[in-house]
Design brief:
heterodimer; A: about 130 residues; about 25% strand; B: three-stranded mixed sheet; 6 strands; globular
Chain lengths: ~130, ~180
């Protein structure tokens, strides 16, 4: 089962795939920020974001900072106005926490919004969704 | 223009009409205490707060475009897709799980609020910040509330008497009514 199948079963709102998806992901990786795992790329290929229960997964298109043009799933190390460090991509929000992918340990996680410290993690996106009781 | 999208102190947060800010001294609390509060919130408080909303804030919910069915969902303690609960005073700081510190917000506004506030707190143990303080227990962005009311077949009415002051303001203070 894919993350999209899982979210459909949970009656999530899924958004249309973004035409700029590949451009954004390539740019993300070219910046050396983080390499997103295949299951998240598959999710973005099928649905450019989702809204479910008390959470949402961002997509690419709506996720580009209009000022810096940097994808918001990528935050530059050392810039306090960016919200994550290198190797970490913010994929969405759940309640008052962030949904992140930490490339350093190849794990999806729920993290504190302010210090981005992960407090629950999972090896796959589906596992994290299950953890959130989606 | 404010660097962090705030208007002058006391005015609304940009993009979030009806949410003013208050001067606030942020001082991060211990992780242990934060985790304890967060767990209590996730395990029970949020469900109780939804029930409280359904019982005590029905007018606010209706004015924000929630249907009777959605209010019943809250009454059962469950969430409605696209909305979550915000701690006005952050759990990272002095905030608690008291209902007086909780506001139901649409996800877009909630996200916008945190995108405005969070950069002021990153890497800080203490900071004076303009804290957004939504009024009441329910905040739904006016454009979203309008869409939801339209979908319910409700009408948008702004009741302004001849003296120019709102004669009868609804619970949201946004002029929406059945």
């Amino acid at each position: 089962m894919t993350a999209v199948d899982y979210l459909k079963r949970a009656n999530a709102s899924l958004f249309s795939p973004s035409p700029v998806r590949d451009m954004v992901l390539d740019r993300l990786e070219m910046q050396g920020a983080v390499t997103l795992p295949q299951d998240y790329r598959s999710f973005l290929a099928a649905s450019d974001g989702a809204m479910f229960g008390e959470g949402m997964l961002y997509g690419c298109e709506a996720h580009v900072d209009p000022e810096s043009r940097v994808p918001l799933i990528c935050l530059s190390e050392g810039n306090p106005t960016r919200r994550v460090r290198r190797h970490v991509a913010v994929l969405g929000e759940f309640q008052e926490d962030l949904i992140i992918f930490d490339g350093a340990v190849s794990a999806f996680a729920l993290a504190n919004r302010v210090d981005h410290e992960a407090f629950e993690s999972a090896a796959s996106l589906i596992d994290l969704l299950k953890m959130m009781e989606i | 223009m404010s660097k962090y999208q705030y208007e002058e102190p006391g005015q609304d947060v940009r993009g979030l009409p009806g949410i003013p800010t208050e001067d606030f001294l942020y001082e991060r609390r211990s992780k242990v205490e934060h985790d304890r509060l967060r767990q209590a919130f996730s395990k029970g408080v949020k469900r109780e707060f939804r029930r409280y909303l359904a019982e005590e804030c029905r007018d606010e919910l209706q004015a924000a475009g929630f249907s009777d069915g959605e209010i019943e969902t809250f009454a059962s303690g469950k969430s409605v897709k696209g909305f979550n609960i915000h701690h006005v005073h952050p759990l990272d700081d002095s905030g608690t799980n008291d209902f007086s510190n909780l506001v139901l917000m649409d996800m877009w506004s909630h996200s916008q609020l945190h995108r405005t506030l969070d950069p002021l707190l990153v890497n800080r143990r203490s900071a004076e910040v303009p804290l957004p303080v939504p009024p009441g227990h329910v905040y739904v962005h006016p454009s979203i509330a309008r869409e939801r009311l339209d979908a319910l077949g409700m009408t948008l009415e702004t009741v302004v008497p001849s003296d120019g002051a709102p004669a009868e303001e609804d619970a949201m203070g946004m002029g929406y009514s059945r």
